[in-house]
Amino acid sequence: MTAVVATSTPGSGAVGPAPRWGTVRTVLRLHRAALLLWGLAVLGLTGWLVWLTEVTAVEERARMEACDLAGQDWCDTTFSTFGFGAPLGWIGLLSAHAFLAVAAFAGGALIGRELENGTARFAWTQGVPPTRWLTAELAVPALVVTVGATLLVLVYRWVRGANEDLLMGTGWMEDHDFVARGPVAVAYAVCAVAVGALTALLLRRALPALGVSVAVTWLFVRVLTEYRSALWPAVSRSSATQVLDPPDTAWALETGAVVHGRRVPDVQFWQCEGTAAFRRGCLDDRGVTGFYTTYHPESHFWPLQLVETGIVLAVAALAAAAAFRVLRRRTA
Predict the structure, then answer these.
(1) Region class of 252: left (phi > 0), else alpha (psi between -120 and 50), else beta
(2) What pLDDT does residue 242 have?
(3) Does residue 163 register a pLDDT over 60?
(4) Which residues fall within 8 angstroms of residue 288, CB to CB, at 6 or more apart?
(5) What's the CA gap between 252 and 229, in Å, rounded?
(6) CB-based contacts of 260: which residues, under 8 Å, 6+ apart?
(7) Does the predicted TM-score (pTM) go above 0.70?
(8) What integer pLDDT is reported at residue 197 of this predicted model?
(9) What kind and span of H or E run contains 302?
């Protein structure tokens, strides 16, 4: 049965259905301050990124050129690290952890506060079914954070790609840089909305829901970060005669030697340096039959991104489904 509310036109007694987008407008009105703050944060970080590439990067290259002409050998490292690389790193860190703010909002203000102060129950008595209410509460913030996070990812990728020469010593495998450069950043933000909503429906109190939402989301992200290297098959290389090093741009996972048939990581055989015959005999005496290295090449960036994004979105879908189930039980 479709719920209706009494709406009348001035001068008439006509009663009609509730406006189609009334619930959406209500969500926007109730949470306009938080949504506005999110928008300002996204615009602020975006503006900072644009400033870095259009102003800071140009200035740093000019300083590096002048320093090189003066015959200094520390120019690249000093200027690029502290002038451009450090600010970009901070932006990447903030972008990669934006899901914590989203989880706090979803658990505390979005759902928890409305359940605690009775706003939600009042809406249900005014012809808005609980499921429609929760759909709007989830859909509107999810759309807003998706748009904002996507904008940050695109601009961050543009700035980083245009200034690779200024990023001394930074790699694609660093945690915050990996997240900030791909769709997994958007997935984490969407998942934070769903987890926050589920937590709030279970606890029904704003402050506890805020704390638990942040803690659960952070723990989930830490677990995925810890096991990120296992989300896609790594490349393994072996040699019977020489120590192997992964490519410069690779994410090195493990390098070592095969000793008595077992892989032993991070072993050094400096005692065996010498002629080829001496080296071979020395390694044989120690049971070394070969060397190996395991790594993710830079080409694995997108497979790792997409697998992790899929996992996060699956968890988000499960959390949203669980939230609807909890709501139906509470309002049955």
Answers:
(1) beta
(2) 78
(3) yes
(4) 257, 258, 259, 269
(5) 10
(6) 287, 289
(7) yes
(8) 93
(9) helix 301-331
